[in-house]
Write a structure and sequence with these properties.
Layout (H helix, E strand, L loop, with lengths): L7 E4 L8 H23 L3 H19 L14 H17 L5 H17 L8 H13 L3 E4 L4 H9 L12 E3 L9 H10 L7 E5 L2 H9 L3 E5 L14 E2 L9
Parallel strand pairs: 1-2, 1-4, 2-3, 4-5, 5-6
Helix pairs in contact: 1-3, 1-4, 2-4, 4-6, 7-8
The structure holds the ligand CSCCC(=O)C(=O)COP(=O)(O)O and magnesium ion (MG).
Length: about 250
């Protein structure tokens, strides 16, 4: 049997398993164009109300911190004004490509209908399909850690061009576990999946995330995929295909 130098795999999505173009040219515009209507139609939904509360708290934190002009979401507004304020905040966050838990939670809910209708079909690199199959055969669990909400991750891997990949995934983590650029998040994930950090390989396109995972003791691979942002010099091992994860 193939002997690999890791016992578990932790995967980023955007720029790693999935082309950045799918996220920026398909998913984000889909959510942006539909958010106003989605909020109008679902304003009474308790989960949407919870997202609005999270957005409101995030807006207050932003205004008090690094973003004094962050659009605010009033507590006492009528429905139309509330939706208008929330949409202004969401569009502002999306313009800045914020990865806040509040924004990601709401985006996931908007994408749900698109996947169900077949309008959204997730793009995943062919080498990822193959790698997930091989890891399953080798009984190496593969987990996802993305800024996208866990619900959004399950939708994406449940509706790919190759069908439902969720049976090949062992679990999902998002920013509710902690920020992706914080080493403690990787320590917490290692603990939650019952692995020593050094037995986990984390694959990401983001150098700051790789540095945080390495600080936590994980092995790292930096994904170089078409369209990814260029990176400064670094000493992490890179890969252009997941095939490389079977050659160590
Ligand atoms: C299923 S999540 C869609 C992508 C997304 O919203 C995102 O922010 C991706 O961030 P990542 O941490 O995977 O680079
Ligand atoms: Mg990424």
């Amino acid at each position: 049997m193939t002997q690999l130098p890791y016992r578990a795999v932790l995967l980023d999505i955007e720029g790693t398993t999935t082309p950045v173009t799918f996220v920026y040219d398909v998913l984000f515009p889909y959510a942006r164009e539909r958010v106003a209507e989605f909020l109008k139609n679902n304003l009474e939904n308790p989960e949407v109300q919870r997202d609005l509360e999270l957005l409101r708290e995030q807006a207050q934190e932003d205004a008090a911190g690094d973003f004094p002009t962050a659009p605010q979401i009033p507590t006492d507004a009528a429905a139309d004004a509330l939706v208008e304020a929330a949409v202004a905040n969401i569009h502002w966050q999306m313009d800045a490509d914020r990865k806040t838990t509040a924004l990601k939670s709401l985006q996931g809910k908007i994408w749900k209908d698109g996947y169900a209708a077949g309008t959204l079909v997730a793009s995943v690199y062919p080498d990822v399909f193959n790698a997930l199959r091989r890891w399953q055969e080798l009984e190496i669990p593969a987990y996802i850690y993305s800024s996208g909400s866990i619900a959004a991750q399950k939708l994406l891997f449940g509706h790919t061009e190759e069908g439902d990949l969720r049976p090949q995934l062992a679990g999902y983590f998002d920013t509710t576990t902690g920020p992706k650029k914080n080493a403690q998040s990787y320590l917490d994930i290692a603990h939650l999946i019952h692995q020593a950090p050094e037995d986990v390989v984390f694959v990401t396109d983001n150098l700051d995330e790789a540095i945080a995972a390495a600080d936590a003791g994980m092995k790292t691979r930096v994904a170089l995929r078409p369209g990814n942002a260029p990176l400064p010099d670094h000493d992490h091992t890179t890969l252009t295909t997941f095939d490389a994860l079977f050659e160590d």
